[in-house]
Write a structure and sequence with these properties.
Elements (H helix, E strand, L loop, with lengths): L5 E6 L3 H13 L4 E7 L7 H4 L24 H8 L8 H5 L5 H18 L4 E7 L2 E7 L2 E6 L5 E3 L1 E4 L22 E2 L17 E4 L3 H12 L6 E5 L17 H5 L6 H17 L5 H7 L3 H7 L2 H19 L4 H12 L3 E14 L2 E8 L5 E6 L1 E4 L13 H8 L19 E3 L5 E7 L5 H4 L5 H22 L1
Parallel strand pairs: 1-2, 1-7, 2-3, 7-16, 8-14, 9-10, 9-14, 10-11
Antiparallel strand pairs: 4-5, 5-6, 11-12, 12-13, 15-16
Helix pairs in contact: 1-5, 1-15
The structure holds flavin-adenine dinucleotide.
Flavin-adenine dinucleotide binds next to helix 1, strand 2, helix 2 and helix 15.
């Protein structure tokens, strides 16, 4: 009698969902059916790698972007075979910030190879739809979809990735219903809504702002872009990218107490500063240890980090290609881009346009701006308790998932299974990627996700005999 296939459903096919499916295909030694549900046609790419703009670049050099945990040069080797990059010196290519669109093609090529080489008894079922709910009864999951028939499975993986940004609080919340407001620039082509004679306001001053500015400028926009954020321009360029610094990592010892790390870190920052080197090599050197350090901290230490250190950590961690940084600065010098260090007070709209009220942090005075479009680039909302996503709302309403105690991801066990509202582990419901932020902190970029996806596939395949 032939073996009954294990059925696994993956909700979300960004890098995390797709690469987990890839590793399931590669690792399975028995019949398997994988249902993959993705709500957009950006299969495997997510918002990061589905951009059509060639100037939207990876924020990590090519040599560090392999999707394979056991083959560090996988992406570089693939990119070097592409017609546009074939003739470029391989070492130089490895140090280059390549288009994110190219990375999307790379993921597609990995997937196509997996489909060609899969076992005959592995079935792949791809559904373009939105998962809206999950029921779990008699060991089976039933996933309700917006348009298609429900999907049944033995295991479910929530690979839902980035949520849309939330609306910054303002008294006139009704403005957020206006067609002149773009809540999620990863979903909507901003350039289609530009009015050539009206300026634009971008809320937020981080990496999404940089992408949005590039797209707007490339569309031929002749006006002025304003950005508004409480910290001013807070993006750094990749500097000292090839300078390895191990002194701090060699000095710190377990248990990693936050206060001690802070003192030691500060000492190293000062030493490097004296010889003209900024903090990036120190933060980069901590990357392989970050999850271990985070996990060793108490709840209070994690709260302190999130309150006092997170924003400077993120600023140093998430940097952009030096020439894109210079491009942004050039726009500032020529007055095309004006960055306000300011607090948003309100947004009003009348027949003449949009009036943005803000408190300038420089002058401590209230000011206004007239614009034709407002784009929210404040970054993804991470507290699932405040999620506007129907699927996550439904799962929380039935107590199947809950926010972790820090409200930066989902409440999970050390094996990445979900903990329900009663505090019980659900041993066949897994999550991955940003949803593990409370457990791991650094869990959204390729260097972390490439290992995570392989490990999740191995966990499920080794688990299945015991759980069903
Ligand atoms: C603009 C941008 C640029 C980035 N650049 C880099 C970079 O250069 N290098 C790097 O290492 N990292 C980068 N990152 C980090 C990035 O988060 C990861 O590299 C990776 O793309 C995350 O993949 P994911 O699958 O976890 O999430 P996502 O890519 O967000 O994928 C989740 C998928 O699930 C789908 N989904 C969600 N809910 C449902 C539902 N209910 N039903 C059906 N489908 C659903 C979504 O539509 C999406 O397709 C970038 C991120 C962004 C946003």
């Amino acid at each position: 009698m032939s073996e009954k296939p294990i059925e696994i459903v993956i909700i979300g096919a960004g890098f995390s969902g797709l690469m987990t499916a890839y590793h399931l295909i590669k690792q399975t030694k028995s019949p398997l059916t994988i249902h993959i549900i993705n709500d957009k046609a950006t299969f495997g790419k997510g918002p990061a790698y589905s951009t059509p703009a060639l100037k939207h670049l990876l924020n990590v050099p090519a040599a560090k972007m392999s999707a394979m945990h056991d083959d560090p040069n996988h992406f570089l080797d693939w990119a070097h075979k592409q017609p546009a990059y074939k003739t470029i010196n391989r070492d130089i290519l490895g140090k280059t910030f390549l288009p994110r669109q190219l990375y999307g093609n790379y993921i597609t090529s990995i997937w196509e190879e997996a489909l060609k080489t899969k076992r005959e008894d592995t079935q792949i079922d791809i559904i373009y739809d939105t998962a809206v709910n999950i029921d779990h009864a008699h060991g089976k999951y039933t996933i309700t979809l917006k348009s298609h028939a429900p999907v049944n499975a033995d295991y479910a993986i929530l690979a839902t990735g980035h949520e849309a940004p939330s609306n910054p609080p303002i008294p006139n919340e009704a403005y957020y219903n206006s067609p002149t407001y773009i809540k999620n620039p990863w979903l909507i082509d901003v350039t289609k809504l530009i009015k050539p004679d009206q300026n634009i306001l971008i809320l937020g001053n981080g990496l999404t702002m940089v992408d949005t500015v590039i797209s707007i400028m490339d569309s031929g926009f002749k006006g002025q872009i304003h950005t508004l954020s409480p910290t001013g321009f807070s993006v750094l360029a990749h500097r000292h990218n090839h300078l390895e610094y191990k002194d701090l990592v060699n000095e710190i010892k377990e248990p990693y107490r936050l206060d001690e790390l802070f003192i030691i870190g500060h000492k190293h920052f000062r030493m490097l500063h004296k010889i003209g080197i900024s903090a990036e090599p120190i933060v980069d050197s901590l990357r392989p240890l970050t999850q271990k350090i985070w996990r060793s901290w108490s709840h209070q230490e994690k709260e302190t980090f999130l309150r006092d250190i997170k924003s400077i950590w993120n600023k140093i961690r998430h940097r952009i290609a030096p020439h894109m940084y210079d491009y942004v600065q050039r726009l500032r010098l020529t007055g095309r881009l004006v960055m306000h260090k300011a607090k948003l007070l309100d947004i009003k709209e009348d027949s003449k346009g949009i009036i943005v009220h803000y408190l300038s942090k420089h002058t401590q005075t209230e000011k206004t701006l007239n614009v034709g479009l407002v784009v929210n680039c404040t970054g993804p909302q991470t507290d699932i308790a405040k999620s506007e996503d129907v699927f996550l709302q439904n799962l929380q309403a039935k107590g199947m998932i809950q926010a972790d105690s820090l409200h930066i991801g989902m409440d999970v066990t050390d094996h990445w299974t979900l903990i329900d509202a009663q505090g019980q582990e659900n041993p066949t419901l897994y999550t991955i990627g940003g949803n593990l932020r409370g457990l791991l902190w650094e869990t959204t970029a390729i260097p972390e996700l490439k290992s995570q996806t392989a490990m999740l596939a191995a966990k499920i395949l080794s688990n299945k005999g015991h759980q069903l």
